[in-house]
Structure formats: C-alpha cells, structure tokens
Structures
1.
Amino acid sequence: MVNIVKFLLTGLIGVIAMLTLVNNVSAEVSNSGEATYINGGIGQEEADGIRAKAGDYNLRLYLSEGKLGHSITDVPVTITDKKGNVKLDFASGGPMLFLQMEKGTYKISAQHNGVTLTKSVTVINHRGVNVYLNWKNTAVDVEDEQSKE
C-alpha cells in the first residue's frame, strides 16, 4: 500500500511539474491573416522559449526602454507594407514580437509612453532581420541612476 501511495505521489508531482513548465512558456503562435507571429517573453523561461523559436521567423522585434534596455510590454505595434497596407496592427506587443512575413519592405511604428518610434526594414530572405526599438531617456533611467547612489 505504501508503495502505491509513493508511486501515485511521484506521478502527481511529475504532472504538476509538466503543467508548470507549459504554463511558464505561455507565448502562443498566432496568425493575423497577414502574418504568423509569436509575442511575449515575460519571465526567463518564456523568453528562452521564444528565443529558441527565433529561426522560424524572419522579422524579429525587441522592445525595450532606457539606457539599460529594460524589456517592455503592452506596446501598440503597426506594420505596413510599402504601399501603406496594414499587415499587422497589434495592440499589445513585447517584449519580443517575432513575425513570419513575405519578402518586402515594411514600416514599423510602435508607441510607448506617448512616443512613437518608426523604422523601415526590408525582409529579403528566410534568415530575416532583427529590429530593436528602444525608448531612451525614460523614467526607468532616472530609477537606474538613483539605485546606483
């Protein structure tokens, strides 16, 4: 009887551990109709899980703020093609937003704390391109300076 209880407890602990892993890497692959994408990267495990899939996407956005590059979330991101057609209008991107796009030139606009950053990027092959959007000189920089004192 004791062996059966130990066996069941061991199995239960294993199931709980697996569910914890699955829940921690909660970024999901989605399709907007124009692009397949994965968004997230909150917490080390989720960030590692998304980075492991980076090669599957040819446009990779990294969103951060401050001189030290603190990751940020909830950033509205719009991606348009060279004709101005919206390919992705994402309400809450970051800190990593990876997309599989057709070859072409795109304009990326993202807004954080009332400041809009815009970049033009050309996707020419499957290897893709990394785009780093960083809002410098933010309140986070003041906090970082104060913590050094």
Note: DSSP finds three helices and ten strands in the chain.
2.
Amino acid sequence: MPDHRQQSRQGQRCGQSHHTQQQTEDNTVKECKQKIEQFKSTGLNNLSGDDLIDISSKMGRYLSRILKTTQIRRFLDGIRKLDSHFDRGNNFNKDLVILMKPKLAYAVGRNQDIKPLMEVLEPAITAGAKTYNDFKKLVALIEGIVAYHRYHGGRDS
C-alpha cells in the first residue's frame, strides 16, 4: 500500500518547483521590461550592446519554450518593412513605429502566449520611435530575440 503522505510531499515539491519556475520566468520578463523602460524618454540608442544582448538572450530563452519562431518573425518582418520604407532615416516617421503597438496587441489577442513579448516590446517601441538611430536599436533588439529564440531551441511548428 502506497504511503499517501510521501506522495503528498512529492506532489508539494513538484508544485513548488513549477511555481518557482513560473516566478523565475515572470521575473525574467519583468527584469527585461524594467531595463527597456529606462530608455522610454531618452531613446533606445542609449541602450548598451551588452544590455541589448542580455535582454535578447533572456527573452529568447524564455520565449523558446512558449512561442514558435514564426510568431516572433512576423513582427520582425513588419519592423523590417518599416526600415526599408524609412530609406536609411530620410523618411523616418515615428508615428509609423508607434503604430506597431496595435499590431502587437492584435497578435496577443489571437494568442495570449505572445503577451510576454508584448510586455517587453511595448516600451521598446516607445523608446525606438524617438529617432532613426533609436529605431535601428529596436530592430537589433528584435533580431536578437529571434536569434536567441532559435539558439535556445525555439521551434518552427
């Protein structure tokens, strides 16, 4: 006859482990968001390369467990289309950058798994809309997230 107290204790440990993992994941998103929010008023151009890589790596690892590569790439493709429209900064329009937020919100409305990406990219879009150089940092951030997502085993389907 199995010892139900032992099973209960094991179940508690597993539940605690899952809860701790969820807290760690939530903290990852919160930490990345806080780093980005520091640049909302000054622009992303002031974000160091080291911080950009740190955020990209953490978010890529986190998202690799919940999102498909295509779900992130769709947003990256939209940002790249804007970049080509801006013609190396000659036609830069911050309103077009800000209008990426509703597209991201629509994606979250279709799939709640994208919400952590939105939490980090929303302040990044605000900071990336200041100047063309800030926008280029936004592009680099999203490219980094996609790259680390793939590196950490993000799936295609």
Note: DSSP finds seven helices and no strands in the chain.
